[in-house]
Structure formats: C-alpha cells, structure tokens
Amino acid sequence: MTRIPALAAALLLAACSAPQPPIDDCEPRGDIRPVCDMLTPEDIAALPDGRHLLLAHFGGMGKSTGSISLFDTVGETLRPLYPLPAGSEDNGHGGDWGDADCREPPGDSIGPHGTHLHRLEDGRWRYLVVNHGAREAVELFELLPAGADTQLVWRGCVHAYEDTVMNDVVGLDNGDLVYSRMFRASDSLGMAKSVLGITTGELWHWNRASGLTALPATRAAQPNGLEIDAANEYVYANMYMEGQVWQVRLADGEVSARYDIANADNSAWGSDGRLWVATHTMSKRQILTCAKTPRRACPGAFEIIALDTASGATQSVFRHEGPPMGAATVAVPQGGRVYMGSFLGDRLISVPDFGRGAD
Question: 65, 295, 311, 333: which has the fewest C-beta neighbours closer than 10 Å?
Fold first, then answer.
C-alpha cells in the first residue's frame, strides 16, 4: 500500500504552520536548564560513575568534523577527550579491536554521530562512535574511567560497507557490533526517498572473524538510532520514516516485534528500566527553518516516549517546544537529572529525572 498520498497531505498541513525562530539566549525555563557554548551533542552516553557523560559533538553530515568530550554534571564543565589539543599525548594505541586494515586513528578528521558505551566480556569498557569524517567507519575506543581524569584510547575501526551513510551503532559483549545504514552515499535522493517511505537502508552485523553481514529483514526507510538489551538478545531499531521502532532478534536477524512510535531518533535505557525514545513532533517546515542556522538552537517540538519492551506499552514522559532548546535527539539519565542533546545548535539541556518514581 502506497504511503505517498498520506505523506503529501501531511507535508501540506505542516507547511501551513509558521515556524519559530532559532533560540539565541541561554536562560533556563522552569526546571529546564541549558548548558551552552558547545558544538551540539547529538548523542550522549552515561559513565558508570553516576556523574559524568560522554558527549559526541556532531559537526553535520558529510565530511564534517566534530569531537568527543567529558561532561561533569556537577560542575557543568567540559573537557576534551578526542581529539586531544595540539601538543597533548596521543590517545591512539593501535588498531587491534577492529578491521585488520584499520591501523591509524582518525585524529582531527573525526566526525561523530551515533555512539554506544558498553562493557566487554573481559570487563573493559568500549565506546563506539559512528564517524562521517575522512572515512565512513565505526571508531572503537577503550574508555578508561577515572572520574574527571577519564580517558579514551583508540583501539581500531570497522569500515562501513561500501556506499554507506551510517547513523548509529551498538556493541555486543563479545566484541561484535551492529550499525544502521541510513542510505547509500551515492544516492543523492536518499533522504527524499525515505520521506516518501521508500526503503533506503538496513542494519549490518560485524564480527571480527567473519566481517560484515547485512540483515535483510531490517530493510526500511531511513534506519536511525539503535539500542540493545542487557542480554544481547535484541536490538531496538528506530525506523524514523516507517513511524516504528523494530525489535530485531540477533540470533537470526529477524524482526520479532514492531512498536508504533513516529519520528524516533535515538534511544537510551531510562532510570525506570524502560527504553526512552526521543521523537520529533515538529513540522517539516520547522526542521527546514532550523537547518538554515545549524549553530543556533532549534525550538522544534519533541517528545520522549518510554517503551516497555516486555509489554509493548508506550507512555509520553516528557515533551517540550521552544526555549531553551528543542529538537532533542536523545535523553539520558545521570545523577538525578535527564540530559538531552540535539542535532542542531550550541547546547544541551537537563531536567529533573522523570523516570524516578514511575510506575
């Protein structure tokens, strides 16, 4: 069944609403507290110390560059982790975790997008970063957690399959990983096709011994953010233009459940044990307006949906539009607050943890 007539009608209605201008001030609004003057953190990972966050500063799509920093939620301060400032000790120690032919760290050419922090079977912490910079690859870092002195050590990379633009990645305890292919790099109409509900990508599974394998059952219109369960049985794939989150069984790569959640960007496990999915409820016209000034905060409406992956039940747990920041891409709990980043602008925001005390 074609989705084009319904989509055309939705776009027509969206065009009728006047977009809000970008946000320039950095003032709190009620319980919503902004931290500004940074390259926008599109993805966020919580360190196991209950205090610090890893921020992936998104430079944009294409051969763009960004960085990774350590954020202290108590002092609300940033410290660069990768790349290190000129003259600092190199934090690349050889590519022994990824593809055999990936031996050099990305350095200043890194362009972070989706990320995932997890613990390997041997107890070490691995931080995966989708890189759109000089190469399209998943960069593999070892996290050395030490509070304010936390470090990242580059351990290799996994090259994306040819003709690929990735979005997000998750890691398995055994060292495998799964990434989402948004669309093909050679397809200049890839984004437009996905808006029309046309299949543009799928998920890929990497194993050090066997390499990359596509998961055909996951072919969809613009696969986006990923999350994985603690048992490494399922990956939850946000199929942005499908209007759904898919539960993908890793044992055979099949889709075992579909949840109706529209415009799902990134996901993270909440403090209530549910999957928190950041969704965009702003108009297409608002997105286009914000895209004209990518270094200014976007006021676009968003909503955080909590998904109970056992029952399939969903609940809206937070929504916002306007200052101090809209267009959130992720919501991550840490230290009694929930931190949200965006794909546009110069800030993050935090609110009191809405997962505490939830049913």
Answer: 311
